[in-house]
Design a protein that fits this description.
Blueprint (H helix, E strand, L loop, with lengths): L3 E7 L2 E3 L2 H8 L7 E4 L6 E10 L4 E9 L6 E3 L2 H7 L5 E2 L10 E5 L2 E5 L3 E4 L2 E5 H7 L6 E6 L5 E11 L5 E5 H7 L6 E4 L2
Length: 190
């Protein structure tokens, strides 16, 4: 049985707490939806912020909603070099001991003490799909991307939940290396 999954290329983005949304956009401010994402209930917001590192800045980094319990900036390795921040590869939400960064919005600035990561490549599985394929939460998988620059990615983290929809997330560096695009498919080979 072929274990084929859709590919989603994840560009730099940020998740914010409600407190940080209000500090950046004003008291009582609520994020507004630009477009839905592959995961149920998740969306790209209309709002963007500037991200200021020690070497450079990115003026328009998209916020993803809804708000989260902790603010987190997800960037690629190339972005980390540009910004001058040594971001580690981490599973989303695992921000302890990570570097911080300065954010600037139309109503103010926020200095994050922690929260900058390079998101570990991963596949979201609905619980039923994971069970059917014999895949456990946190299992590390090997995945083949096809095409002219096809490659095999190792250490792809399985994330299993009743709240997830099947989708593999890689960052722009990984996508560029493989010549992969949103909507391509990949195959779990191990």
């Amino acid at each position: 049985m072929s274990k084929t999954v859709p590919v989603g290329v994840s560009a730099r983005h940020i998740h914010l707490t409600q407190e940080h949304v209000e500090a950046l956009f004003g008291p009582g401010y609520q994020l507004t939806e630009f477009k839905p994402l592959s995961q149920p209930g998740q969306f790209a917001a209309n709002e963007q912020v500037a991200v200021i590192g020690t070497k450079s800045k990115f003026d328009k980094v998209r916020i993803l909603g809804p708000v989260r319990p902790a603010s987190q900036l997800e960037i690629s390795r190339t972005d980390s070099f540009s910004l001058g921040v040594k971001a580690p590869v981490r599973e989303s939400g695992n921000i302890e001991g990570t570097p911080g960064i300065t954010l600037k919005g139309p109503a103010g600035e926020v200095v994050l003490e922690t929260g900058v990561i390079i998101a570990a490549r991963h596949i979201h599985f609905h619980t039923s799909e994971a069970e059917a394929w014999g895949i456990a939460d946190k299992q590390l998988l090997k995945v083949r991307l096809g095409g002219d620059r096809g490659l095999v990615l190792e250490n792809v983290l399985a994330r299993v939940s009743d709240n997830f929809a099947l989708d593999m997330h890689i960052d722009t560096d990984e996508a560029n290396a493989a010549g992969a695009n949103n909507g391509d498919t990949a195959e779990i080979v191990d």
